[in-house]
C-alpha cells in the first residue's frame, strides 16, 4: 500500500477531514480541519473530493518517507518543504516515488499547514469520519512511526499550483448578532467593533483568545446565564472580559455570554492567526452575511478551475543542464553563404 511513513513529526499534527456533523446531541462537536479552506485547496490541486482526509500540522511539519509512488499537495500555512534535497513549491501538487523523503519545516506565516495524499489518507473511520477529535477522545495525534495510508487514487495529474487566499496574518472578522447579543448594551457592542484586538497566547483547536488594551467587555446579568448549545464562530465573553472565538473542536455547551458569531468563511483567519496578529470585528447584517457566505461557497466550487501549471524556478533545478535550453544556434565562424543558408 502506498502511503507516507512518519519519521519525525511536530507535537500538534493529526489527521483531519471535514469532521462529524450531526452528533451535537450526543455531545460531540463537528471537529475537523481548523482551516477547511486548505482542505478544499488540496482537493483542487489533486483533482479529488474535498471530504478526503489530510494531515494537519500545527506550526511545525516533520519528515516523511514514501512507501510507494504517490501524489501529494501542500496547502495552508506556508512551510519550508524539501523533497530529496529539492525545495518544493507550497500550495502546489507534486509526485513522490517509493523511498523518497519529504521534510517540512516550521510555519513561515500562519499556524496550520496541510499535507494531502492522492486518494486521501485512508485511516480507519470513527463515527463516520477520520478526523481526530482530541477533546472527544476520538483518535490521537500523529506520532513518529505511524503510517499514513493513501486511499485509492485514480488520477495521476501533478504539477499544479493555486494562488492561496492570504488568511495567515489576521485581519477583519465579519460578525453577526446572535441570540445573546442583546444582553450586551449597544455602547459595548459599538466599542467591541471599534477595538483593535490581537491573538492572545491561549489558543488551540477549540478556540482563540482575543486581547486588547483598556476595559474588558461584559453583558448585563452575565452571571445568571444558563448553559446552552454553542457553535464554531460564537464569540464568548469570559469572566475577565476577554473574548474567545470558538473553532471547530469547541465544546458543545457553554455558559459564557456570546456577543455574536463570526461568519464561517472568516474562521480560517482566526485559526491561522499567529500570536500577536492584529484582528478586528466588523458587524454585518444577517442578509449581508448570507450573501458573503454564498460568494465564498462559489469561490470554493471554482478552485479546481483556478489551478494552473506550476512553473519551476530555474535557479532551483539541479538537473538544469539536462534540458535543451537553446536551439537554432550557429557557429560565429561559419559562413552561411558558403552553404547557401541565405535569408
Could you please describe the fold and organization of this structure?
By secondary structure, this protein is α+β, with helices and mostly antiparallel strands. A hairpin with a 2-residue loop joins strand 6 and strand 7. The chain is globular and about 95 Å long. A 7-stranded mixed β-barrel has the order 13-20-17-18-15-14-21. The chain has a 6-stranded antiparallel sheet with strand order 7-6-9-4-1-11, with no helix packed on it. It is built from 5 helices and 22 strands. The mean pLDDT is 92.
Uncertain segments are none
Helical residue percent band? 10-25%
Number of helices: 5
Biggest sheet strand order reads: 13-20-17-18-15-14-21
Task: Please report the total strand number as a whole number.
Answer: 22
What coarse outline follows from CA principal-axis ratios? globular
Strand percent estimate? 25-35%
Mean pLDDT: 92
Distance between the termini: 60 Å
Secondary-structure-derived class: alpha+beta
Q: Order of SSEs, N→C? A: EEHEEEEEEEEEEEHEEEEEEEHEHHE
**Biggest β-sheet: count, sense, barrel?**
7 strands, mixed, barrel
Cα-based radius of gyration, to the nearest Å? 24 Å
Précis, in short:
By secondary structure, the protein is α+β, with helices and mostly antiparallel strands. It has helices spanning 36-46, 186-194, 267-272, 286-301, 303-306; strands at residues 3-9, 13-16, 54-58, 62-66, 70-76, 79-83, 86-87, 92-96, 101-107, 112-117, 147-149, 160-161, 171-176, 197-203, 207-211, 228-229, 234-237, 243-246, 253-254, 258-262, 278-283, 308-309.
